[in-house]
Amino acid sequence: MTDVPSPGPLYLGRTPDDEPLGVAARALTTHGVIVGMTGSGKTGLGIILLEEFLAADDPCLIIDPKGDMGNLLLNFPDVRPGDFEPWVDPEAAERKGVSVPELAEGTAELWQGGLFR
Fold first, then answer.
1. Which residues touch 72 (CB under 8 Å, ≥6 apart)?
2. What are phi and psi of 93, to 5 degrees?
3. What pTM was estimated for this model as a whole?
């Protein structure tokens, strides 16, 4: 897997052929909208775009009626399971058949390996 060259396009992810996928910031100079079915990845794409813009010191105005973008405020620099534990939904852990600490540990491992790998 190759690294995305920097400076360059805003990184969006990888293609099915494992090639970096990006868009030039200048292509997004006015307004944008992300449309899709429930569960199709709109929030994930929005978060990726916002992180890329913020990393490039580009200004962003975020209007988020559902409140999903508030998760961007979560900061886990050491990516320890204990950091995630207060944010784990006990009902989600129960549905997965694990304890809250176990789900926190799994989430930390996912983040340590990279969310999109």
1. 47, 50, 51
2. -65, -45
3. 0.47
